[in-house]
Amino acid sequence: MLSNAAIDRIQQLVKEYPNTKSALVPALYVAQRDNGGHLSRDSMVEVAEELSLPESHVFGVATFYSMFYFEPVGKHLVQVCGTSPCRLRGAANAIDCFKGKLGLEIGQTSEDGLFTLQEVECLAACHLAPMAQINEDYFFHLTEARVDEIIEALRRGEKPQGAEFETMRFNAHPIALSDEELGIDVSHLTPAEPVVKKEKSAEAAPATA
Amino acid sequence: MAYEDQPKIIHKLLNVPNINHIEVYEEHGGYSALRKALESFSPDDVLNEVKTSGLRGRGGAGFPTGLKWSFMPKPLFPKYLVCNADESEPGTFSNRDILNMHPHILIEGFIISCYAIGCTHGYIYIRGEFFKGFETMRRALAEAKARGYLGKNILGSGFDCEITLHTGAGAYICGEETALLSSLEGDRGQPRLKPPFPAVAGLYAKPTSVNNVETLSNVPFIIGEGAAEFRKFGTDKSPGMKIMSVSGHVNKPGNYEMPLGTPIREIIETAGGVRGGKAVKGFFPGGSSTPMLTPDFLDTPMDFESITAAGSLLGTAALIVFDEDTDIVQVTKRLLQFYKHESCGKCTPCREGNDWLVRVLDRLDRSKGKDGDADLLVDMASQIAGRSFCPLGDAAATPVLSGIKRFRPDFESRITNPDEAPLFIPTEQFFGH
What we know:
The structure holds two protein chains of two kinds. Chain A is α+β, with helices and mostly antiparallel strands.
């Protein structure tokens, strides 16, 4: 069952679009987070009901994208980039380091449910290769020592040094989180000075909604 | 002049501490271009200034931005501006820095562009994996709204504009503009037939312009400093700066914002030269979807026309450099695994063809190639290129075709065991995937 908080967030997201269908991918992120990191059939059915979409459409969209998971994944989802630009800078070695350290092959989840290891495609950080995304964080320049350090920290339940985020999000996409959860507070800001129109052109401003 | 001291447009403030905060951005002159546009420019003035600047799309195709905007029928509302921040081309990582570190330059450019085309609600489509970029942008949008740069009646000018952040979920194809629009509408991210072009029937079948992050981030400079200042950089036909993403076997891989027309050799030198003092074997000039070139082309100026004349494409100006010890077969094979994975499955040549290319490349990689495999690859790739629904098929064929054209001996040296690998793969294996 989707939690009330998840349903509230989905309804917030729906308001951003002129039709509810556009909110589908964001809603699936909310459902995936709510369901503990993967999408169950039931959670997708609930999303379909929430957005008044056919279940078949929701399954079709969810399975199109690689960031939705249909089986439980580890608490820490380790995704090592293996595309050619990373390969040129030692991605194969980084993948081997993760395999050795975690005792997992690509695609496997550890028995304790802590780690899933995946090889993924270009994550747009080729200059910092070899690199990996672990849950919400990117990690760069992966050597054997660096991989050890990252995995050990995660095993202790800590954020590894150099992580992009301070708090553990367990792979929850920020779109699934409310402003309060993200700590976005702009109450210190006041509106800027208005502009003084200098009439120069006879062209009218565009009609506004 | 050292790279750090050279003039820049987007990267000018990139390394200012806390430039992601609106107060810091404003202290450095941020949002003054928006103010100027709303005070002294009509929407058409902005459009004309961008046209005069000669700004061309930075996402790969290089289409003139002002012209693209002018294709949108004027009297139809609503119109949409969609920012393509689905950066996923292998070797390309320039948008990520803007989203992570310098969000307000994109937001300012976006609002000015909305003003020019008459869009009151725009979308920024960020690739799913960019958690950090998404959150930075979300915070920045909230700041811009609190300061009155977004929302109803912006700065009292009467112009309304809202921006919604949207996210992908891991699909390279969504960088193709019509696939992006399908994805944004809540469908599978598959491309649509053109025409109709998005300018006529795009998002929700309304006139839409899809522009890249870097394209829109150039707009505050063009309006703030003027098109003439912008044209002082680059070449006559490719004006302005371009962020060159340099990766592979160089000493200092990274993003370097340099004038269009800078020779490739100079860009590689700025990136610290080739690692270990080795020679360049080859490079992709504009990401993995652009034809590979050999060192003979190192003096080619990095601009749209010169790279095209050299037989490749500027693409996203993502230079992937390989040194003399690089195995082109492995590079090509891993890229084709990428394209196979990212093919959306809509059309047969791309969906099936990429799988077949990977199979043959894999046996070459294992040095189990069969006589004629290089020609077989060329034959298959030629049937994907130009025969696929969208440019992904062309992109996938490119590393194979250019790799064999430029580095054929690398492929032929792997044909060592003609008997072991059957040309036709047994049917049970074919249906087993």
